[in-house]
Amino acid sequence: MNGDTVITLKNVDIFQQKHLVLSNVNIKINKGEFLYLIGQSGSGKSSLLKIIYGDLYIGNGEGMVAGFDLKKLHENEVPYLRRKLGIVFQDFHLLTDRSVEKNLIFALRATGWTDKKLIDSRIIDVLEKVGLRSKLKKMPYELSGGEQQRIVIARALLNNPEIILADEPTGNLDPNTSEEIVLLLKDIAASGTAVLMATHDYQIIRNMPSRIIKTAEGGLLDNVSI
Ligand SMILES: Nc1ncnc2c1ncn2[C@@H]1O[C@H](COP(=O)(O)OP(=O)(O)OP(=O)(O)O)[C@@H](O)[C@H]1O
User: Fold this and answer.
1) Residue 55 Cβ < 6 Å to ligand 1
2) Is 41 in the pocket of ligand 1 (CB under 6 A)?
3) Among the atoms of ligand 1, which is closest to the Cα of residue 50?
4) Is the minimum distance from the CB of 44 to ligand 1 under 6 angstroms?
5) Which terminus of the chain has a lower count of CB atoms within 10 Å, N or C?
6) Per-residue pLDDT for 1 more than 80?
7) 3-state SS class at 32
8) How far apart are CA 105 and CA 219, in angstroms?
9) Ligand 1 contacts CB of residue 17 (under 6 A)
10) Collapsing DSSP states into helix, strand and coil, what is residue 39?
11) Smallest CA separation from ligand 1 atom 24, residue
12) Which residue ranges make up each domain of the chain?
């Protein structure tokens, strides 16, 4: 793995229980790349993401993610791998009973941050990155769906991840708001974080083309056109 590669999977077989979902997966993703992950429902997109964030273990093959060797990954190292990853999933909602600021403080404390000054300045940094500094004191229900998704992205950026995994981040958003979210993710990629975004939204891909990988027929295809 050279210094610019943040994800390498080599001849990896991906199982759910005893069922082989994807076989012989080969992929390299570099620092700062933005990729779409497509594939029919049930074809293995989530399983691929799970291998990357250490929720499924590698059987056959080799994998390196953000410097962690997936083959040797011990259960108690998974939280450290996750700190190198920003996760933006549809079901990773904001906590609805507290403000944006308190959501972000909660996420930082959970990953070991204790210094109040550093916490405050990190929160301002990530809110500026997503263009929502003014929403610091708002409750999630006072924000639009797109704004909430930006805050989820801000939360994913807190620990300065090497990779963002986004699973259908625009699934509940209207087309214009969806494009803004993808533009934001592309900006984040341009500043050095790799972004892998699973989506079923081909319109977005057509409007904002990028490298596409696809789960199909029990394998992973690279550089696909749609
Ligand atoms: N926990 C599990 N135990 C057993 N089989 C599973 C489990 N999770 C998923 N599978 C099976 O693995 C295959 C791939 O599922 P996966 O969730 O990776 O697909 P997907 O492409 O992400 O689908 P979707 O787009 O609907 O989210 C499916 O056949 C599914 O039934």
Assistant:
1) no
2) yes
3) 18
4) yes
5) C
6) no
7) coil
8) 40
9) yes
10) strand
11) 41
12) 1-84+163-170+192-226, 87-160
pLDDT digits (tens, 9 = 90+) for 177-216: 999 999 999 999 999 999 999 999 999 999 999 999 999 9
d(CA 204, CA 198): 12
Q: Is the complex ipTM higher than 0.90? A: yes
The SS3 call for residue 86 is strand
pTM of this prediction? Answer: 0.93
On the question of pLDDT at 174 being above 60, the answer is: yes
| Average pLDDT over every residue of 70-92 | 90
What distance in Å separates the CA atoms of residue 187 and residue 90, rounded to the nearest whole number?
Answer: 20
pLDDT tens digits, 39-75: 999 999 999 999 999 999 998 999 999 999 999 999 9
CATH 3.40.50.300 is right for the domain spanning 1-84+163-170+192-226: yes
Q: State whether the beta carbon of 198 lies less than 6 angstroms from ligand 1.
A: no
Got the DSSP string for 90-125? TT-PPPTTS-HHHHHHHHHHHTT---HHHHHHHHHH
